[in-house]
Amino acid sequence: MPSFVDRVVLHLSAGNGGHGCASVHREKFKPLGGPDGGNGGRGGDVVLVVDANTTTLLDYHRSPHRRAGNGSPGEGGHRNGADGDDVILKVPDGTVVSAADGEVLADLVGDGSRLVVAHGGRGGLGNAALASTRRKAPGFALKGEPGEALDVVLELKSVADIGLVGYPSAGKSSLIAAISAARPKIADYPFTTLVPNLGVVEAGDVRFTVADVPGLIEGASEGRGLGHTFLRHVERCAALAHVVDCATLEPGRDPLSDIDVIETELERYGGLADRPRFVVLNKIDVPEARELAEFVRADVEVRGWQAFSVSAVSREGLRELTFEMAKIVSAARAAAPPPEATRVILRPTAVDDEGFTITHERTHDGERFRIRGRKPERWVLQTDFSNDEAVGYLADRLARLGIEEQLVKAGAKAGDEVVIGGEDAVVFDWEPTVQAGAERLGPRGTDSRLA
């Protein structure tokens, strides 16, 4: 089982709303005291919250299925059901939330950031809430709505200021260990680092974070090595540092060719071309490496990049390097636009928006009319079709919304198949009311529906 996971697919289910209660108040000398059924409770939400102490998505890799609590049903005596428990899922800072189709839903940056990713269903109304002057004692209640169920992709992109890139064994982990309190695994063989490392560095009064990526090699964009998998962790960095091994004994390698290979892989990954670069010529505690670093420094600076000769072992050059990093980070922070306060965006329904659409479909079984819309589909879910009075209440609601009138305009006739919803649709044969079919009645007393 891996100890670090930076991408998972979560299968989320919010809680269902509780059903409303159909009850009649009864007491001595008042056998029919009126409706007193309570409303059902709201289903629990699934909420993502950024937690500074969470650094990996490992828990969700192990348990990808999460479900919030259901709302309790209402009871007699005007007692409403309890709301379902929310599920709070803690995620690391820098988690990107995407839908299954790739649409980005949120970029959670900053401790305490929240996102309600799956909303719980609303509780059904009890018959006390449905009572009106026209329907004084409803013999039915509304069912609770089902909660949202969806799959989301969580992808961690570390929030670091400086990103270290380079070949395996270039000394990135040693460098982070030397300039910060981080203690990554260090060994003398390639691909020692299997997961990104993050270290906090202080230079003067500036504090910043440095992240490294497991060694990139030529062909990483085609799946070789590990680095291309983890490059997402340097997407947010203000600058990239090429860490170059000046003491390598591998044939055919030198600092400039190493930099060219890494730059090619960064270009293939995309999205990092605008980041400032500088070069860290590492391992100058080896005499031959020191000579090589001095030899290639001019060639690096010709490209417009600063070069720093350092040794993570003897700590030579680290002070100058960290203060230059702090200078770059300070400039990037000063140039960044000030954070905007979170705004609540209201999108009211247009005045002329009827809230539904009617589509005329032709199938191998004949013709039918499909109704789609938030209100009619929600009302269907709330209806107890085993109760005739509840079905009549649904018909009244649909008629008041104007659906019957629009069905007539669309060419629907009595007995035509009408479908409300998508995959889990409700299908019925349409019987228009007298009001909806008034323009087709003909002479008085000739309409078949009045026979």
UniProtKB/TrEMBL annotation:
Annotated region (Disordered), positions in chain: 60-85
Protein name: GTPase Obg
Co-factor(s): Mg(2+)
Location within or outside the cell: Cytoplasm
HAMAP family tied to this protein: GTPase_Obg (MF_01454)
Gene3D superfamilies xrefs: GTP-binding protein OBG, C-terminal domain (3.30.300.350), GTP1/OBG domain (2.70.210.12), P-loop containing nucleotide triphosphate hydrolases (3.40.50.300)
CDD domains in alphabetical order: Obg (cd01898)
OBG-type G domain mapped to chain residues: 160-330
Keywords for this protein: Cytoplasm, GTP-binding, Hydrolase, Magnesium, Metal-binding, Nucleotide-binding
Enzyme class (EC, first level): hydrolase
Positions of Mg(2+) binding: 173, 193
Gene designation per UniProt: obgE
InterPro entries: G_OBG, GTP-bd, GTP-bd_Obg/CgtA, GTP-bd_prot_GTP1/OBG_C_sf, GTP1-OBG_CS, GTP1_OBG_dom, GTP1_OBG_dom_sf, OBG_GTPase
Domain OCT, chain residue ranges per copy: 348-432
The enzyme's E.C. designation: 3.6.5.-
Binding site residues for GTP: 166-173, 191-195, 212-215, 282-285, 311-313
Gene Ontology molecular functions: GTP binding; GTPase activity; magnesium ion binding
